[in-house]
Request: fold
Amino acid sequence: MKNWKEKFDNFRTDLEFLESIVEGKARFFIFKCPSGFIHKRRSSAFYKNPWIADLNSVIDKESYVLNRLKSVHKDKYTYDRFRYTGYQDKSTITCRLHGDFEQMVSSHLIGNGCKKCLTDDNKVRNVIRAKEKFILRQDTS
Reply:
């Protein structure tokens, strides 16, 4: 029998090898990434690109996504009502200022957030621009 742990460690020393399992004709590696999430990845895919440890391979997808959302948005939102059903599906997110809203997980992961906050920010920017234009007109006359 091959030493799968040794073979695995030759590719990625930052991942903790947990076990190697066989399902049908495919072999899978179970491993833990530095952030603590458990991943399951087909060994053939792992050898082709050993640097991918992402949403597709993580076992507890909801925890993984929540961790990523919190790193993107810090403390601006709470995720008590958030349920991960898919990358392109909508889920409930709570804005600390405006309350609950629904948004696609993929959209929220790239930095989009509460539309009411965006509207408020735009109003503030428009007021600042208007004041700057008024001051410039006063200085030129």
In short: The first strand starts at residue 16 and ends at 23. Helices lie at 4-11, 43-48, 61-73, 105-109, 115-140. The mean pLDDT is 80. The longest helix spans residues 115-140.
